[in-house]
Amino acid sequence: MNLAQLKPGENGIIDSFTDLEMSIKLMEMGCLPGENVLVERFAPLGDPMVIKVSGYQLCLRLSEAEVIKLV
């Protein structure tokens, strides 16, 4: 399962990434393996999404969220 498949209010734990280049950017933003991530909401048209990770809110495009694999 990847992060983009979660609905608002659902959470998961980051396991790994499917894209090496994008994973570096995501880890710099606090999306580290083992971190709990909570989906807070989606934009009115469905993209981007707002998540809570590492104690702060982060806005991700769905294409970026698809790279994050969850446990």
From TrEMBL:
Gene3D superfamilies reported for this sequence: 2.30.30.90
Coiled coil: none
PANTHER family, per database record: FE(2+) TRANSPORT PROTEIN A
Ubl conjugation recorded as keyword: no
Keywords: Iron
Species in which this protein is naturally found: Pedobacter flavus
UniProt domain Ferrous iron transporter FeoA-like: residue ranges: 1-71
Protein name: FeoA family protein
TM annotation in the entry: none
